[in-house]
Design a protein that fits this description.
The complex is a heterodimer of chains A (about 270) and B (about 250). Chain A is about 80% helix and about 0% strand. Chain A is mainly alpha-helical. Chain A is flat, with a radius of gyration of 23 Å. The mean pLDDT of chain A is about 80. Chain B is mostly helical. Chain B folds into two domains: about 60 residues, no CATH class; about 170 residues, no CATH class. The longest helix of chain B has about 40 residues. Classes of the chains: A mainly alpha (about 270), B mainly alpha (about 250). The interface between A and B is large, with 106 and 109 residues.
């Protein structure tokens, strides 16, 4: 009963959220572009699905993703689990190995499966004429997110200041920007924002808040947020690094002996 | 109708595949590493099914209605060449899609509860709702402004790295004076805004503009809008935190 009531409330709220977007796109279509809306029934059906889906998603989020993220954080930082029954010596940051492993795994898994990233990777492959591989880009971004979330957990556990990490990260990005192939720079900057999707964000936020609540001496407000920021920063570094690596290998290959290059090309052709 | 249902089913299969890695990682940790019973497993399972269904219907609905109109509109406006309407469109697109963004709604709600718990704002429903709405509007405004700046950049061929790097220099500067309890939320809001609704429409706008302007490369000029949309929320939310704390 509570579930149904909260579902109805959420549904009403989401209708209010989606309505402005629909109205302004409709107004532009009619008044600025001056084209009639075709396929009215299809559009209406799409709208109903959008609002219903959004409502269901938000209810499910409250029910599953937030509790799950918190629960995982609590269980992974539980002193009994950490010490494995050995008597409780002082627990420092190195005792939380499984938190880091979980962060790596969940960061990599959610990013590889991210549909928005796949769409952007395919668009980039198209626009670059095949120079940027779809899988290369996806793996580069996924490694970036995995390292980012893991390092973010390390920061929450140690309580080090967030801005320190972000500052160092952007200095690295700046240095890389100077030497990276120009073609990749806008894509790399974009990939930071693309990766943090609708499912990843709530799960990772809950993980961070859960960690800050259970690790002794941390405050959820001061230390709990920041994981999403890490997950948006590190893909920039990893995608730039991927482009630099590809360019470097290209240079080594072209300066190498001619027959070596021919052989490499023929094996490449065989592989494909 | 049956065709619609069949496509919907295909979407359900697609989302299940997308969510499978997450389920596998969590199941592995629960069963192999933690070896603990999952509290409220049934409730979480129901919620997970709702997430799966909801996300599927949401994306399906977007692809039926909003994406085709939005994309053709972005292309048409970019071709039309009226800078005024292009900028208005960019702002409304940023603002509208961000207000409707489920990830932002979720995180802002969480932030308002944490802020109330820590005593930054009063622990009443009204204060929380106020803070929540303020946060969402701040972020939505910032994404609107980001798209205006990004569109101007594409039109005038400004340098992306210079703008982004100076933006982050501003962020670091503001961080030193902003109230410490807003910093984490502000930094996170950059990544939160750009997901399901925003990315496809914004990418269409950028690539559409860059391919309809002369002397522009879709690769170097078309991408980059999302980078702005991830940067300005940090600046705006830091400012919002300052305003809430000092006034």
């Amino acid at each position: 009963m509570v579930l149904i009531q909260s579902a109805l409330e959420t549904l009403l709220a989401t209708s209010g959220d989606v309505l402005p977007v629909v109205m302004f796109i409709g107004a532009f279509q009619v008044f600025v572009i001056r084209q009639p809306l075709r396929n009215f029934r299809r559009l209406l059906a799409g709208l109903v699905f959008t609002v219903l889906g959004l409502g269901l998603f938000l209810v499910g989020l409250e029910q599953a993703l937030f509790p799950l993220g918190r629960l995982m954080a609590q269980q992974l930082t539980n002193p009994e689990f950490l010490t494995r029954g050995v008597d409780a010596v002082a627990i420092d940051w190195s005792a939380y190995t499984w938190v880091y492993v979980f962060a790596l795994a969940i960061g990599f898994a959610t990013t590889i499966a991210e549909p928005a990233l796949l769409a952007v990777a395919m668009k980039a492959n198209d626009t670059s004429g095949g120079a940027i591989g779809v899988w290369g880009l996806r793996v580069a971004v996924a490694i970036g997110v995995a390292v980012g979330v893991s390092l973010g957990c390390f920061r929450i556990i140690t309580g080090l200041p967030l801005q320190l990490f972000i500052l160092v990260g952007y200095v690295i990005v700046m240095i890389q920007t100077v030497w990276a192939p120009r073609l990749i720079i806008p894509l790399a900057y974009d990939s930071g924002g693309v990766t943090t999707s609708t499912v990843t964000v709530p799960l990772v936020t809950a993980l961070g808040l859960g960690l800050a609540e259970t690790v002794p001496g941390r405050s959820p407000l001061l230390d709990g947020f920041g994981l999403v920021a890490f997950a948006s920063l590190f893909p920039i570094i990893s995608v730039l690094a991927y482009a630099q690596l590809t360019a470097l290998m290209e240079r080594i290959r072209t300066t190498g002996k001619k027959h070596a290059r021919n052989r490499a090309e023929s094996t490449y052709r065989e592989e494909n | 109708m049956t065709k619609t249902l069949r496509t919907l089913w295909k979407h359900v299969a697609g989302s299940s595949r997308d969510l499978a890695p997450i389920v596998i990682v969590i199941a592995f940790f629960q069963i192999v590493v933690l070896q603990e019973p999952l509290d409220g497993a049934l409730s979480i399972a129901i919620g997970a099914v709702l997430v799966l269904l909801g996300l599927t219907m949401f994306v399906f609905g977007l692809e039926l209605a909003l994406f085709p109109i939005g994309e053709s509109l972005a292309f048409a406006l970019a071709r039309k060449g009226s800078v005024f309407w292009l900028l208005i469109f960019a702002f409304l697109l940023g603002f509208g899609t961000t207000i409707a963004e489920p990830a932002l709604t979720a995180v802002a709600k969480e932030a308002s509860q944490v802020a109330a718990g820590a005593g930054t704002i009063a622990d009443t429903d009204a204060a929380r709702a106020n803070y929540l709405l303020g946060l969402r509007i701040t972020v939505a405004l910032s994404v609107g402004v980001a798209l205006i700046v990004g569109v101007l950049r594409i039109l005038l061929a400004w340098s992306l790295p210079v703008m982004i790097i100076s933006g982050y220099a501003l962020v670091i500067g503001m961080t030193t004076v902003a109230p410490p309890d807003i910093v984490g939320i502000a930094y996170d809001s950059g990544g939160v805004t750009t997901s399901t609704v925003t990315v496809p429409l914004v990418a269409a706008l950028g690539v559409g503009m860059a391919s309809s302007l002369r002397d522009r490369n879709p690769m170097t000029d078309g991408f980059g809008l999302i980078a702005f949309a991830s940067l300005t929320p940090i600046i705006f939310v830091l400012a919002y935190g300052g305003i809430v704390a000092w006034f």
